[in-house]
Inverse folding.
């Protein structure tokens, strides 16, 4: 989907990328940095400005004590970096196998899957802020990673030039944190498996859900369209008993009220949202099944996964947005929970 780009630039190397970015970000016209385009919903009316396509390549590594620092240029394919690391016996990103897109986009939403996320291994990145064009090295503190978000996603506009990860030389993986993956590997959650087995199992699981780019029509998506909502304890408790809930903070301490005394409950109304819900469960239980489409629309819910919206061929951005809105409204009307879209919308309502 999408329309024409008025001015598309594809710099040939890192120096040119930085130069072109400084030029376009200092100008008056709208600009957009494009990686692999796997997490965007671009308007069908096109982009009246400059799109800077990042294709710089290269992976370097050096040993630093008991870790290996791996630096990849922003246009490198994320999955090629995972494959490179696994083939060299470097552990840390094997569970992030098969995520489409580029290395430079990985920190934007702190990519994650199967109990792992970029934040686990992130060391630093080279960044050019749009406001002053000065090359900077940003660390975890600057990036304020959260669940599918970062300071860049929250508005720190700029260009990611290269990303450095801290990996470990080991034939076995980081501990497996996701029960479905652990079952697939025949280990317990918290145990490890061989790097190659984890990569193979993750790719198989992802393929079964249409979540690796392939000729599977269900992979013509932006991956998960909605993030899993994180809500307060009160809202989570009000949901049906079988709704999956994943506490992201320790459970509140139980309060003992001796018989015959007045309970003195602390005011938790301002307590931070701390329970992650399953967006897929909420969508399914709001009555939207796999394969669902609005009449006459080429946008549909994936036939393998309720969280992905698929372009069945010729879908417009408006059709995708219309289906996303419909799903959000159904979930909100049923459970009172708002879903947040994960992809970046470009001039799309
Ligand atoms: C089938 C499928 C499965 C997916 N599964 C997952 C998953 O399991 N987990 C997950 O987290 N995501 C998943 N995604 C989403 C997507 O793969 C990631 O968000 C990925 O990081 C996007 O990379 P990209 O290069 O395609 O970025 P793009 O789509 O090109 O851009 C995404 C955003 O990043 C910005 N950006 C890109 N490159 C740079 C740069 N160098 N500097 C500054 N900003 C930049 C863009 O401006 C845009 O805002 C999936 C997508 C698909 C299609």
């Amino acid at each position: 989907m999408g329309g024409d780009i008025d001015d598309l630039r594809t710099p040939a190397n890192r120096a040119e990328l930085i130069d072109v970015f400084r030029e376009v970000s200092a100008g008056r016209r709208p600009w957009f940095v494009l990686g692999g385009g796997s997490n965007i919903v671009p308007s069908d009316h096109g982009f009246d400005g400059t799109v800077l396509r990042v294709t710089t390549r290269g992976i370097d590594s050096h040993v630093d004590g008991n870790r290996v620092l791996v630096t990849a240029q922003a246009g490198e394919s994320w999955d090629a970096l995972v494959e490179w690391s696994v083939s060299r016996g470097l552990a840390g990103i094997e569970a992030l196998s098969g995520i489409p897109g580029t290395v430079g986009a990985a920190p934007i939403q702190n990519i994650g899957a199967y109990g792992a996320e970029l934040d686990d291994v992130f060391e630093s990145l080279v960044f050019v802020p749009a406001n002053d064009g000065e090359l900077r090295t940003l660390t975890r503190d600057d990036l304020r990673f959260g669940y599918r978000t970062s300071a860049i996603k929250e508005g720190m506009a700029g260009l990611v030039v290269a990303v450095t990860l801290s990996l470990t030389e080991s034939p076995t993986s980081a501990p497996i944190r996701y029960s479905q993956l652990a079952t697939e590997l025949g280990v317990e959650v918290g145990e490890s498996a061989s790097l190659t087995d984890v990569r193979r199992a993750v790719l198989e699981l992802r393929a079964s859900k249409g979540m690796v780019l392939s000729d599977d029509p269900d992979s013509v998506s932006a991956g998960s369209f909605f993030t899993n909502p994180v809500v307060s304890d009160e809202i989570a408790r009000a949901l049906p008993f079988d709704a999956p809930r994943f506490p992201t903070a320790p459970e509140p301490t139980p309060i003992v009220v001796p018989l015959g005394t007045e309970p003195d409950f602390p005011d938790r109304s301002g307590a931070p949202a701390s329970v992650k819900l399953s967006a897929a469960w909420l969508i399914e239980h709001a009555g939207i099944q796999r394969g669902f489409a609005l009449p006459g629309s080429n946008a549909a819910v994936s036939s393998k996964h309720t969280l992905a919206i698929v372009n069945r061929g010729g879908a417009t951005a408006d059709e995708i947005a219309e289906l996303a809105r419909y799903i959000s409204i159904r979930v909100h009307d049923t459970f009172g929970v708002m879903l947040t879209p994960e992809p970046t919308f470009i001039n799309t309502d």
